Amino acid sequence: MFDATQMALVLGGLLFLVAFGVHIAVALGLASALGIYLMMDGDMEVVRSFISNTAYEAIRDYIFAVIPLFILMGEFLARCGAARDLFALVNRVTKWLPGRLGIATVFANAIFAFVSGVSIAAAAAFSRIAYPEMKRYGYDRQFSLACIAGSACLGMLIPPSVLMIVWGVITEQSIGSLFLAGVVPGFLVVGVYSLYIVYFALRYPALVGETAGPGVVSVTASGAAVAGGPGRATMVPAAPPSTVEEDDFGKTIVGTLLVLVLILSVLGGIWLGFFTPTEGAGVGATLSLFIAIGRGMRAKDIFDVVLTVGRTSAPLLLLLVTAQLYSRVLSMTGITGAVQAFFLDTGLPPLAILGIMIFIWFLLGCVIDSISIILLTVPVFAPIAGTLGYDPLAFAMIGIIAIETGLLTPPFGILVFTVKAALPNEKVSVGEIFRGAIPFWICLLCVIAMLIAFPALATWLPNLGKTGV
Questions:
Q1: What pLDDT digit, counting tens, does each position of 429-446 carry?
Q2: I need a labelling partner for 100 at 20 to 30 A (CA). Which of 42, 146, 150, 288 fits?
Q3: Which residues pair with 208 in a beta bridge?
Q4: What separation in angstroms does the CA of 234 have from each of 5, 208, 221, 243, 460?
Q5: Do 118 and 78 form a contact (C-beta atoms < 8 A)?
């Protein structure tokens, strides 16, 4: 068993490597090797054997195919224009809502999240799809970009989610159950986001193109645009016709229906037990390929998609291998038990301990990415939550949403940087997007509070599936 000094060396070494910019996979691997070395009194042969066996067992695990297959499914649909169809359709049916383009962005992201699983892809796609429409109708730039960045979080909250897959692998939970657990919280986020957007549109109509205010361009019935404001009635050239208006409505409906059929086939099949998550991912990737070919995707584009998915998923698989090694070392050396005993011996109530975990996730979200946070903390936090009596699925959803706030938190905030990079011609600073995203960050906190108060929001659907309903 480790003593306190050896535990400090392992954990301190890991944090030191991460703080100085060492890749998280390398840091986890080195810290794990150090732990085994100390535990085995310096026997390098045992260290080599332990690492090689863990890597072999991890890579041969059938579940590891889930990540590249779901990413492949999302990439095919993103490249063939499915995201644009979703935005076009939702935009058409929400014209009666205040701030309809913001609502359309949120709902289109929610539907696209069912086939994507990667928030960055959604942020890049909707920056090029939704922002030009918002700009054309006189939406405030900061609000528009914040809507895109905030709603892109749904890619990790609504299944199939890469974060859910990583969480399931690390904690050995059912990935299918995690997928089902994410549906209600994901749409709860959609509802809270939508309420905020409607409130913002009613409170500041000039900033969402509802009325002509200073510096806001509004479109007249004749199609000309008028720059509004006191003493200003200057006619400016009408904006070019919207791509949404030009789209053939029938094709948009067909494209969206195909995506919905794909979602129902994959997630419905997993829920009803027709196939495992890995098999469902394979079915989804195959169907999305057929849809992409039907929409005109060529062999060169297909090759580019496969290459992109390989570049994206290979580092993730390496991370999962080293994470499993790290998790095993924590268990074998007693570090997990020591941290658990420390929290429990404080005498704090379970809610306070949960609050400390969430606070740690918030802090880590400021400096490192979401997957790295899961790999570093979940092997320690999940057993503690189980001991405190929290349902594993509800705790997973609380953790994933808390960790997702890091995607909107400075200075890392990868979604903010993705939105900025997707619009190189816009002279916008990341600080402007971060400020606009604060209300969406608060919305995520509200959903976390709801899940803490009502864990059944996460457990209801998985339990319904277990009953065979």
A1: 888 899 999 999 999 999
A2: 288
A3: 139
A4: 73, 20, 16, 26, 56
A5: no
